[in-house]
């Protein structure tokens, strides 16, 4: 029987998880340096397109640099909001959740991308989304928003492309030039449709995808890059990667010279911090209905505020035993 030498666990620390995935995406960029880097003076980039937060990095001067956004943060909310005057992406969009929930796509594009509108899981998700999701051509979900006084519809690929464009904009402002090539991390259990839809989103954003890396594998390699599994002989490593919207597990062997071999992968593309939030939201909705005989799901603004409050309460419960919502 094989011995488990190490277990690496990445829980729902969304910002840290994104940075780990992004670091390893750029590690792969070094491997692609001959064919990908410094085209017209611009390096290729690595992006972790997360359910809740995204992160971008560049391989430069033989090291990885995670690029901060215009707010000085190294991670950016994977959030898009539409107002009467503008489209907001990232931190500005997240601030719209409570006041403008019907036109704020909060952390959900990754859960719907590459999925069918008729899927049971998609229908369950829609019930807790404060914005409208309708059935588009070929059973593809589309979001409906009001932007500059007009109703507009978007596919999930288009929403994800807006987030990717924001990450591209962040790194281009940092290096003072344009970028085209990218390595993107995705959940291990993303199917072919989800992977292709993510690639399509990158294309819309003007990016050329060199490779997609499974997120738990990225986490494992990141630990290897940090020399946490150095030494002689092979080591068996079990990686738990619990993010904002997905959960992946990978079993790998790592030898003393840094060679990685993936033995098995498993996971759930629909289990993460968002599900913890939704459990709390459902509990509060039912409790409110019993006490006041009112259904909060019929009030988009109230539902948006409740989701924000539950997410905040979950964070407090990480270090406290009780919290009021």
UniProtKB/TrEMBL annotation:
PROSITE patterns: HSP70_1, HSP70_2. One of its GO terms (molecular function) is ATP-dependent protein folding chaperone. Keywords: ATP-binding, Nucleotide-binding. InterPro entries: ATPase_NBD, Heat_shock_70_CS, Hsp_70_fam. Pfam families: HSP70. It comes from the Eukaryota. Gene3D superfamilies: 3.30.30.30, 3.30.420.40, Actin, Chain A, domain 4. This is Heat shock protein 70. It comes from Lactuca virosa. The lineage of its organism: Eukaryota, Viridiplantae, Streptophyta, Embryophyta, Tracheophyta.
């Amino acid at each position: 029987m094989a011995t488990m030498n190490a277990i690496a666990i990445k829980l729902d620390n969304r910002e840290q998880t994104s940075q780990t995935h992004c670091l390893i995406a750029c590690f792969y960029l070094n491997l692609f340096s001959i064919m990908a880097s410094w085209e017209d003076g611009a390096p290729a980039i690595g992006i972790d397109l997360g359910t809740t937060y995204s992160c971008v990095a560049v391989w430069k001067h033989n090291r990885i640099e995670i690029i901060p956004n215009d707010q000085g943060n190294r991670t950016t909310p994977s959030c898009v909001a539409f107002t009467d005057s503008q489209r907001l992406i990232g931190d500005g969009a997240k601030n719209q959740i409570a006041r403008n929930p019907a036109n704020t796509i909060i952390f959900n594009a990754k859960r719907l991308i590459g999925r069918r509108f008729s899927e049971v899981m998609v229908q369950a998700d829609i019930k807790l989304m404060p914005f409208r999701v309708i059935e588009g051509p070929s059973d593809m979900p589309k979001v409906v928003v009001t932007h500059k006084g007009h109703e507009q519809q978007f596919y999930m690929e288009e929403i994800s492309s807006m987030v990717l464009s924001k990450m591209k904009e962040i790194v281009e402002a940092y290096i003072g030039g344009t970028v085209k090539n990218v390595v993107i991390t995705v959940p291990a259990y993303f199917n072919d449709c989800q992977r292709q839809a993510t690639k399509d989103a990158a294309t819309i954003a003007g990016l050329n995808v060199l490779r997609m890396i499974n997120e738990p594998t990225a986490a494992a390699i990141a630990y290897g890059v940090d020399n946490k599994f150095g030494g002689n002989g092979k080591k068996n490593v079990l990686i738990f990667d619990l993010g904002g919207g997905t959960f992946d597990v990978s079993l790998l062997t790592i030898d003393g010279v840094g060679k990685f071999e993936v033995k098995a992968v498993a996971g759930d593309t629909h289990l993460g911090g968002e599900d913890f939030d939704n459990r709390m939201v459902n509990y509060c909705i039912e409790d409110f209905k019993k006490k006041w005989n009112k259904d909060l799901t019929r009030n988009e603004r109230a539902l948006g505020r409740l989701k924000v409050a539950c997410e905040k309460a979950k964070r407090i419960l990480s270090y406290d035993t009780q919290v009021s919502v």
